[in-house]
Amino acid sequence: MKKILFANTLIGMLATTAVADVNIGNPMALTGPIPDLVAPMAQAVDLAAQNINDQGGMFSGGEAYNVIRADSACDPVAAVDAVTKLINVSSVAAIVGPVCSGAAIAQAESVSIPAGVVTLSVSASSPAITNMENGTDLVFRTAASDAYQGVALANLAIAKGITDVAVSYANDDYNVAIAGVFSEAFTAAGGTVTANEAHEPSKASYRSEVATLGATSDNLALFAYYGSGGITLMRNALETSAFTTFIGADGMLSDEVIDQIGSENLGTTTFTTSASDPTTKAFGAWKAIADAAGVPASDPFVPNAYDATFMIALAIEKAGSADREGIAAALREIASAPGEVILPGEWEKAKGILAKGGDINYEGAAGNQDFDENGDVAGLFSMSSVVDGAWAATLIE
Asked: Which of 38, 128, 366, 389 could be cross-linked to 263 through a Cys-Cys bond (beta carbons 3.0 to 4.6 Å apart)?
């Protein structure tokens, strides 16, 4: 009897000390105003996890790297609910996402920071995220802040010869912030903001707003999500011939805009977005992986989504466990020099180096992923216009 009891106790101890599979939470805006933008981002997250599992998985036992997805709907309330479940019920080690700034801020302040869980967003770009942590070092992102994109768009407008512009922005965290940065930078560069007005998302008509703005300028800077008012406002503007030129940011950069508005009506439209340098070795490695899997390698924030998922895995591998408290420090270590350069897809190589106590420096599909003291990264931006019925992007120098 004693031998049986001892054996059962030993089996129980082995079961509790075995390394478990690694689960990360992925609250993506699968519904809401930008589902078409988010769909390939989710594919990139899954592709990163597949690459890791195909090349030996996590730790020495080859444990699985699992993505547990939830719908944050690009909505603060939905994001808080989704992340609460991921952290408290699914017990995820870290959060990759959400994609929208308002959702990312709400869940971080209410859920992930109090729980001591790292958030690595793939596309939340509001400048407000930079200073929201109060020293917790738990919020990171693989996309550059709109503190930079707003300036890039302002400089682009001036370079295009636009000297005055009316500004319309959706009343949410992302669009309010980037509109503010743009307006300040455009004015500082010598331009004139003739009107600067918020609009409420998801209205059936914006004809009154368009009439007011259109009386001040022929140029409109539109900051909105295409699926929650952006397309409607643009259509109303075109129907009334209120503007001759449209500029804006990545919330409007979707094929749905072409489908709904018509490419023939978008000849004077330019939108900016976070971008990757296609000439780098890292992007080349990523493109080969993405092309083989049928994932659009250059779509907005798709490389960033792959990087975030891969980097969280590298950080957990570096830390030696999925314990939440060790991930933030390890994330900074795997993302920066010194260390052997790791490109997208090179999981087996990275795992071998880390197993021997070596250092690695991940160079991402979306570019350099060195985090500053606020968890931000520098970035590149592109400008997109319609050419032959499709969006064509060019890097902004």
From this structure: 389
Specify the CATH number of the domain 147-275. Answer: 3.40.50.2300
* Burial tier of 255 (Cβ tally within 10 Å: 0-12, 13-18, 19+): middle
**Tens digits of residue pLDDT in 320-372:** 999 999 999 999 999 999 999 999 999 999 999 999 999 999 999 999 999 99
Please return the burial class of 264, using the count of CB atoms within 10 Å of its CB with bins 0-12, 13-18 and 19+: exposed
Six token digits for residue 221: 């800077």
Asked if 229 and 170 touch (Cβ cutoff 8 Å), the reply is yes
Rg, Å, the chain Cα set? 23
Q: Which of 29, 124, 107, 111 is nearest to 376 (CA)?
A: 124
Q: Please report the pLDDT score of residue 19 as a whole number.
A: 57
Cα 334 from Cα 342, distance rounded (Å): 9
User: How much is the average pLDDT of 54-74?
Assistant: 98
Q: What is the DSSP string of 303-338?
A: HHHHHHHHHHHHHHHHHTS--GGGHHHHHHHHHSSS
pLDDT in tens, 76-86: 999 999 999 99
What are the Cα distances from residue 306, in Å, to 40, 254, 277? 10, 20, 15
**Helix ranges (DSSP H) in the chain:** 2-17, 35-54, 76-88, 101-107, 113-115, 146-159, 173-188, 207-214, 230-239, 255-261, 281-293, 302-319, 327-335, 347-355
Cα–Cα nearest to 313, from 28, 47, 18: 47
Identify which of 19, 142, 57, 25 has the alpha carbon closest to the alpha carbon of residue 350. Answer: 57
**Is 93:22 a contact under the CB 8 Å cutoff?**
yes
Within the chain, which residue ranges are assigned CATH 3.40.50.2300?
12-146+279-368, 147-275
| Helical packing angle, 35-54 and 281-293, nearest 10° | 100
Cβ atoms 380, 249 nearer than 8 A:
no
CB atoms within 10 A of CB 39: 15
Q: Out of 3.40.50.2300, 1.10.10.10, 1.10.443.10, 3.90.230.10, which CATH number does the structure's domain 12-146+279-368 have? A: 3.40.50.2300
* Residue 397, pLDDT score: 79
For 106, how many CA atoms within 13 A lie in the half-sphere containing its CB? 23
Residue 40, sorted as left (phi over 0), alpha (psi -120 to 50) or beta, turns out to be alpha
Q: How far is 208 from 214, CA to CA, in rounded Å?
A: 10
Q: What is the Cα–Cα distance from 332 to 370, expressed in whole angstroms?
A: 7
Task: For residues 34-60, give the mean pLDDT.
Answer: 98
